[in-house]
Write a structure and sequence with these properties.
With about 325 residues, the protein is of the alpha/beta class. It starts with 5 loop residues before the first helix and ends with a helix. The chain is built from twelve helices and eight strands. The protein has an eight-stranded mixed β-sheet with strand order 6-5-4-3-2-1-7-8. It binds S-adenosylmethionine (SAM) and iron/sulfur cluster (2 copies). One iron/sulfur cluster binds next to loops.
């Protein structure tokens, strides 16, 4: 993936340091809609939802001013279902701090025109979910033809040379045997890969967790295989310590020490603050301090190790060393 120029990286580091000290979030995830084009087996979203109370694009400016994140994720539901998503991106990027901005999407509605429009609006990184390196992806996401659409579009857009596409693969019991082939697919398509880990917290279903010694052995063997092929490119975006922590998460059935609400938080489609996408306590924008007091300070939940957490659980020096080098990829 494109390396972030040193000047931009220093700007993000400087702001990250200020936010760390001021107890402001480093990353904010705006879930711009609850509706989705897919019905994924591992997720609590799926299909249409009430969209009448969604924030309008100009309203995002107030959240940016109050929260001042260094990194913004635009997610959902499926963010590309919003016709005004480029306007939301422009509002977010128009804030004085110009955060590093990631679109997290299943790409069912992505086209070359939309990709170029969103790049122009200010998206720095396109995170595209991929659960299988073949048409089993369609079955898992309950969206016929999705894999074929991705396998046509992703390599074509990668060849434009912007180096801003990262596959996002959530490891489950269903796809654990495929994680090396998913890495090969990223190479073949000319994009990078970020692994994430299944949490049963979204749906309450433990079937997709790695529950057996055989599944854990398979995870370790295949991650060893991928790790052995790491090279100077940013092909595998996760830091080695993050993949180590992912192994421990599955082996131990959880990871304590979560900083949801403090280091990162979610803004729901209708504008409430939530500590994360799987904790549904809602707070008004003005009550973030209360969320930290009531939720973060007493939080004992250890039920996920998704990317946003894995970046931000670390100590500040480790965050700087690893996330800036690996996640933001300083030249
Ligand atoms: C909730 S989706 C929203 C954005 C978009 N619809 C997509 O799928 O990329 C964001 C990411 O969460 C992941 N996800 C969904 N359910 C999950 C779960 N139970 N545990 C961990 N990650 C999950 C998806 O695979 C996806 O990569
Ligand atoms: S993972 Fe994304 S695409 Fe799948 S149902 Fe959830 S929100 Fe929709
Ligand atoms: S571990 Fe943290 S981020 Fe994950 S579900 Fe629990 S509170 Fe949310």
């Amino acid at each position: 993936m494109r390396k972030v120029p040193l000047t931009d990286s220093l700007r993000i580091i400087g702001r990250g340091s200020l936010n760390w000290l001021a107890q402001r979030p480093i990353v904010v995830s705006f879930e711009v809609t609850d509706a989705c084009t897919c019905w994924c087996k591992h997720c609590d979203h799926g299909g249409p939802r009430d969209e009448s109370r969604n924030l309008r694009p100009p309203e995002y400016a107030r959240y940016m001013e109050a929260l001042r994140p260094c990194v913004v994720q635009i997610s959902g539901g499926e963010p590309l279902m919003r016709d005004d998503v480029a306007e939301i991106v422009r509002t977010i990027k128009g804030s004085p701090r110009r955060p590093y901005t990631i679109l997290v999407s299943n790409w069912s509605l992505m086209t070359e025109e939309k990709y170029l429009e969103l790049r122009a609006a200010g998206i720095d990184q396109f995170s595209v979910s991929l659960d299988f390196p073949d048409a089993r992806h369609d079955d898992f996401r309950v969206y016929p033809g999705l894999y074929s659409h991705l396998s046509d579009l992703i390599p074509r857009l990668a060849r434009l040379g912007h180096d801003d596409i990262v596959l996002n693969s959530c490891i489950t019991s269903e796809n654990v045997g495929e994680i090396d082939r998913i890495a090969d697919k990223a190479r073949e398509w000319g994009v990078n890969l970020c692994y994430s880990a299944y949490s049963a917290r979204r749906t309450g279903c433990r079937d997709y967790f790695l529950n057996t010694p055989a599944q854990l052995d398979e995870l370790n063997d295949l991650l060893d295989k991928v790790e052995a092929r790491r090279d100077a490119t940013n092909w595998i975006v996760n830091a080695p310590t993050t993949l180590e922590a992912t192994r421990r998460y599955f082996a131990n059935g959880g990871t304590p020490g979560c900083k949801a609400g403090l280091r990162f938080l979610v803004v729901t489609a209708d504008g409430a603050l939530q500590p994360c996408s799987m904790q549904f306590q809602r707070y008004p924008l003005e009550d973030r301090d209360r969320m930290i007091r009531e939720f973060t300070r007493t939080n004992e939940c250890d039920q996920c190790y998704v990317s946003i957490r894995s970046y931000l659980d670390k100590s500040f020096p480790q965050l700087l060393r690893e996330n800036v080098r690996e996640f933001l990829s300083v030249k």
